[in-house]
Specification:
Elements (H helix, E strand, L loop, with lengths): L1 H42 L2 H9 L5 H12 L5 H20 L11 H12 L6 H27 L2 H5 L3 H6 L5 H10 L12 H26 L17 H15 L1 H26 L6 E3 L9 H7 L13 E8 L2 H16 L4 H7 L7 E6 L4 E5 L6 H16 L11 E3 L3 E5 L12 H15 L4 E5 L8 H18 L3 E6 L14 E9 L4 E8 L7 H7 L4 H11 L1 H113 L9 H15 L7 E4 L4 E9 L4 E6 L2 E6 L3 E3 L1
Parallel strand pairs: 1-5, 4-8, 4-9, 6-7, 7-8
Antiparallel strand pairs: 2-3, 9-10, 11-12, 11-15, 12-13, 13-14
Helix pairs in contact: 2-3, 3-12, 4-12, 5-6, 5-12, 6-9, 6-12, 9-11, 14-15, 19-20
Length: about 750
Amino acid sequence: MLSISNYNTIILSFPINNKLNHRRQTQSLVVAAASIHHDSLRVLEWDKLSDLVSSFATTSLGRHALKDQLWSQNRTYEESLKLLEETNAAVEMHKHGSCRLHFGHIDAMLAQTGIQNARRTIPVTGHEARAVFALLQSADTLQGDLKATIKQGKDWYSRFMPLTEVIMEFVINRSLIKVIEQVIDDDGSIKDSASPELRKARQQVQVLERKVEQLMESLIRSEGSETSILVVHKSGFYTENKFQGSVVVQIQLDVDDIENILNSLVQLDVINARATYGISFGGSNPQIFLPDRNSSCSAESFLTRNENSNGPLPNNREWILYLPKAYHPLLLNSHRANSKKAKEDVATSVAALDKAQPQPVPVDFLVSSKTRVIVITGPNTGGKTICLKTVGLAAMMAKSGLYVLASESVQIPWFDSVFADIGDEQSLSQSLSTFSGHLKQISNIKLQSTMQSLVLLDEVGAGTNPLEGAALGMSLLESFAQDGCLLTIATTHHGELKTLKYSNEAFENACMEFDEVNLKPTYKVLWGIPGRSNAINIAERLGLPSVVIDTARKLYGSSSAEIDEVITDMEKLKQDYHERLTEADYYLMQSRGLHSSLLNTRRKIAEHSTSLKFKKMRDVSEAAAMARSTVHKKVRELDASAKKTSQYNKAIKSSHVSTTNNLHTAAADNKKPTITDRRPADVKKIGKSSKDRSGVPKVGDTVHVSSLGKKVTVLEVDSSKGEILVQAGIMKLKLKVTDIQRL
């Protein structure tokens, strides 16, 4: 039975042990994952950057909350987008200036204590009540400023989103604000004006204090042993607790709303700190996206998905990481602090400025979507590690809702994790050397990294035999490129790693530029060029004996020297290319300006031509209208003149008839022959002569003016008025038609 029992016990214990082992393995994996994430953040100095950003918070609770938020990197892509949206809204509020998110006058910790005491029905002190008063008053002011801004322009409601919703949801009991202001003084004591009873009680206290002082003085002066008795009544001395209790009751009634306001103001303080940091250091709004390896990820397609861009991105190439002119945030902060300190020290300002750190050099990271591994080479102290940290910090800043310190708009993929193996990872507690420490860290990174991770490896393959280190480094980088993370950036001194680019398109080379004339690094990244060794050349310039230099070059080998020469030629070509590219960009900008100017000139000429055409058409129309009017007027005048001429001719005809009748009468009386006796030709001649002399003259005719007794020449004829203009010697006269006789 015992054996069976033991046997059963043994059999039944296997599942239990398996579950325990599985649970322990899961816990160990979780602990290992947390450890590798923490180590990566530590080597990237994320803790220092978190402290720097948190210092922009104006409340103690805001600083603690912001630190916790920055250290919590376990967030989704949508959560990162929301954080950036909040930061953008706070930046818009800064630009507008009416809604200030500054809460430095609020003792948030004391207000939180007062809320907790009120919730537990513990008496609230006067200082805690004043802290609650400052909290509610700030919320009320902020909400009122926002409402006034929205009244000025409705678009501000959407531009301040999602902060608009947070502020508008404040439920503020203004009566509680008035009660606390009336009862509690700034120093936390109860005001005398709280009630007549309290004022009377305090006056009684003052009277008693004076009596006590007088009694003490009398006891001191008294020589006898008489004893004086002062009777004090307790009634009225608990009035302060009464009024303080009424404030506590009202706080308890609104404790939920007050706590929500406190949490919201702390949240706004955190958001404002992120925005203030970005504005203070001239940051750029990062455009984060989720890259898809199965499709290209171009800047143009990205811009269609993100409308909150700060500027145009180049669309002539496909980028997975576009980080131009990016600064290391801690170096930039250190430089500003040193410069400020030097300027404040007036006595030694010149010497201090000379010794101050030089202006940090921005780095450019433009990574194609086809690239999975970047190999950076260059001399020691050349800036390779700073480049790694700059990229790693920029990725985590974008993920955490912070602006990236870059001079231009940046495009960064959303990384689920940033892993880094940087620095001396020697572990004495685990008996690990530097090489073993690096391998242990890289092994953990390899296990924890995903297809959406960023891996930063400093001096990969270092710390052991160069040949073995180079082989191991090549194998590691190829494994990361094949089935590893989204992007791997590695620095190395091994020349063999430079050749990976020429056999695998997933690799890209870069090097740190070195000024051989001044023997100083320039801290600039040269893309597409593998770095070359400068040790022998530097040693020669530093004055090492020529024998040693020659021997070293022989040992280095002619093939390596030829490779260095090729690399040198490539660097020169690269520099020439960049110079030509800069020149081309300059001329392109000029040509664009000239083209724009030509288009404007062409547009103005077309507009001027159109306006002239319309003006000519208008002038022709007006001239035609005037001509028609003149013609119509002349026609009317001619019609009127024709009518007058007809009437005049009728009058002459009637006068001829009368004359004829008179002649007939005279002929009958004088027995003279009548006109009928005359020849028809004579009658016709008389009629014609009479008609010619009595008609309207024409221009150029010579007529006789009986009043002058002269012959004159007709210059103008106005038939409508029956007037003519004549030339008489040197004089021009206007006469009636009836005043002249035609010849």
